[in-house]
Structures are given as C-alpha cells and as structure tokens.
Amino acid sequence: MSRTNFDQLLQAGSHFGHLRRKWNPAMAPYIFMERNGIHIIDLNKTVAKIDEAAEALKQIAKSGRKVLFVATKKQAKDIVAEKAASVNMPYVNERWAGGTLTNFPTIRKAVKKMTNIDKLMADGTFENISKRELLQITRQRAKLEKNLGSIADLTRLPSALFVVDVCKEHIAVKEANRLGIPVFAIVDTNSDSKNIDFVIPANDDAKDSVEVILTACCQAIAEGLEERKAEKADEKAAAEQQEEAAEAKPKRARKARKQTEEAEKAEGTEEVAEKAEPAKEENKEAEAKEEAPAAE
C-alpha cells in the first residue's frame, strides 16, 4: 500500500512545476504536460518515488544510522524542524555552513565549544568576568546555537541527506556527492536531478506539498526506529535466556554428578554385602563342625 495517494498530492498542489522557460531537461521523465506555460508533474510517478524513498529511509533508521534534513527556505524550514525533531533526526534550517560535511571535524569542534560554554555557565565560572566579556560569550553561544544547535547530537557523518529544493541547497548536495552520501530530495521542474540518488518529483515551493511528502518519509523513519527497538528487545530476551541456560547447565551437571556418585556408592555397598554373605556362611559351617565333636 502506498504511503501517499494521487488525490492527496493533488490537493497539496504537488503537481505544479515552474514556468517552461525555467525547466531543467533532466526532469523531463517526470513532467506530465504543460498548461498555460507551466509544467505539470506526473503525480503517479511522485507516489512511486515517495514509496521508494520512504522504504530506503526506513532501512537506514532501522540500522541505527542518521538522516540529515536540510531546508533553509522560508516555506519549508519550520516543517522540516518539526518533522525531523519528531523522529529524533538532525536538521539544518537556518544557514548551511560550508564544510558541514566535508569539514566535519571542525564543525564538531564548534559544537563542543558551545557545549563547553554551557558547562562553564552552569558551574558559575563566568560570574567573575566582566559584563562585556559575558555579553560577547553569550552572543557567540547564540550564534552557534542558531547555526549548529540542531546538529549538536550528530557525532559522526550522516548516512543520508534529505534536501528540500536542490537549487537552494546545492552546496549541501555537492558536499554529500563528494563524500558518497546518498541524497534524497524533493526536486522541482527547475532543478537538476542527475546528482540525486532518490528523486521525489514535486512542487518544493508549496508548504502543503512539502508537508505531505515529509510526513510520509518521517513516518517511514519512525517505523524503522520501532522495528529496531523491537529487534533489540528480542535480542535482549534471547541473551537473557542464554544466560539462564548457561547458569542452569552447571547446576544440572552437578546434580547428575551427585546422582552418579550416589548410584556408584550404592552399587559398591551392594558388592561388599554380596562378598560378605559367602564368608558369613563359611564361618557358620566352620562353627557347626567345631561344635559337632564337642557334643560327641
């Protein structure tokens, strides 16, 4: 069953492309027709592409890896922040800092700097500095939070990039391509889809269009996270059963050993008793013979 449908996308305005004179030939396979000088996107292909992308995103989430969402345009930034945060994924919705991916160690240092400022503020270290210095540090902290706060938990490179508007986020796409990171993107008719691994042909300017697509994709990510959680629970239960079995095995072995020893001891007692019986009979016979002459 598809995660979206034709009518849902049609109502959201996902089929509206750009003016014909602004089109990119790479998007030709996804264009259904032209109406009043505007390209109309084939929503049947959009539905199929959403399902394909959603399944791939689900597998990434299931494996415990991260997807970095990027959307700095006004129409999409709030939606991306909400949807990405709902599935605990990092996102960039202010300004893409050049080198966020290709110079990741430096970005991590900036994030650590922000964390250190928080620690120093918490333990009262800044109480002894001047107001001017405190103001400078506070402004620096606010700037770092604005640009990097949403990726503070990203301790390693993401396994995928999800972009809204390939043209606007071309630097992010280039960095991902350079590092071999798969790119998922909502691609409009004016964009180049050649460097995108998972193309979702749709209107990337309408808020409703972006929201419908992101909802479907984030729902798939949530499913992947739930499956991962269930698998971990099963693995934990299996490990506990193995531990219990391992603990029970020595107990069973000791019990079996004890039973064997008791059985051997019982057999030994029976053998001694059997050997003692003939000797006892012989003693009786000897005593009888000795008593017979005495009687005579």
Automatic annotation (TrEMBL):
<keyword id="KW-0689">Ribosomal protein</keyword>
<dbReference type="Pfam" id="PF00318">
    <property type="entry name" value="Ribosomal_S2"/>
</dbReference>
<feature type="compositionally biased region" description="Basic and acidic residues">
    <location>
        <begin position="258"/>
        <end position="296"/>
    </location>
</feature>
<protein>
    <recommendedName>
        <fullName>Small ribosomal subunit protein uS2</fullName>
    </recommendedName>
</protein>
<dbReference type="InterPro" id="IPR018130">
    <property type="entry name" value="Ribosomal_uS2_CS"/>
</dbReference>
<dbReference type="GO" id="GO:0003735">
    <property type="term" value="F:structural constituent of ribosome"/>
</dbReference>
<feature type="region of interest" description="Disordered">
    <location>
        <begin position="232"/>
        <end position="296"/>
    </location>
</feature>
<dbReference type="InterPro" id="IPR001865">
    <property type="entry name" value="Ribosomal_uS2"/>
</dbReference>
<keyword id="KW-0687">Ribonucleoprotein</keyword>
<dbReference type="InterPro" id="IPR023591">
    <property type="entry name" value="Ribosomal_uS2_flav_dom_sf"/>
</dbReference>
<comment type="similarity">
    <text>Belongs to the universal ribosomal protein uS2 family.</text>
</comment>
<dbReference type="GO" id="GO:0006412">
    <property type="term" value="P:translation"/>
</dbReference>
<dbReference type="GO" id="GO:0022627">
    <property type="term" value="C:cytosolic small ribosomal subunit"/>
</dbReference>
<dbReference type="InterPro" id="IPR005706">
    <property type="entry name" value="Ribosomal_uS2_bac/mit/plastid"/>
</dbReference>
